[in-house]
Here is the input.
Amino acid sequence: MPRMRIYVRRQIRLLPIFLVIANPATSVANKPKSPAELRRIILHTQHPGAHGMGYSERSLIELSEKIVPADIPDVIEVLADLHMRVGVSFAFASQCHASLVPTREAAVHHKMDFLQADEVAELVTSFTRCSPAAHEQAQALRAELITLRDAEYSRTEEQNKLRAADDARIQANGPKLLDPKQAATLSRKEREEVYLRSVKAMGLDPNGPLTPQQKNLLDRMYRTMVLGQPGEPHPQ
Here is the structure.
């Protein structure tokens, strides 16, 4: 009896190893690929067309067989190469439903522009290997992307208006520093804003590398414009 128990325990220990060995293809297929490998795969799915090498329905089919949803985060990394933009859209679309949420998130977080995100969704709506449900979800995503894009543009426009108004205010405060009475009406913060705007207009960064001459110039400007100290007399 003791020998039999030992034999059973050994068999149980070996069972997980046997299962891994018996299904090596499944393990390899689901393993995420590197961005470099994905780039090669995407490029190799181009085919000759009326306008030269490009992507088509055949590309979508091949990509759907060569990459998996687990590859999507690394496919985004391929976007760093602007020449891969179209190929990445096809790679995303080949994953049908699995690509829709990542596409939306990539657009919201500015890893993919809204136009490309719309291209991905449009490809999903027409890809025959995607389910009818995926087609409907992709169409809904296209409508949502329009709303998200318009909201983003509105925010950007409002921010630009605020920056322009702020810059105009700082610019208007500049001449006041030339008159001691008007300069006295400005707060320390407003003086610093004028100083920093003047430094920026000179193409300098007070926190960046400066030559001794530049540092001396900025020190004198700061004492005069921000601290209100009298300027040094010009040499005769």
Notes: The mean pLDDT is 85.
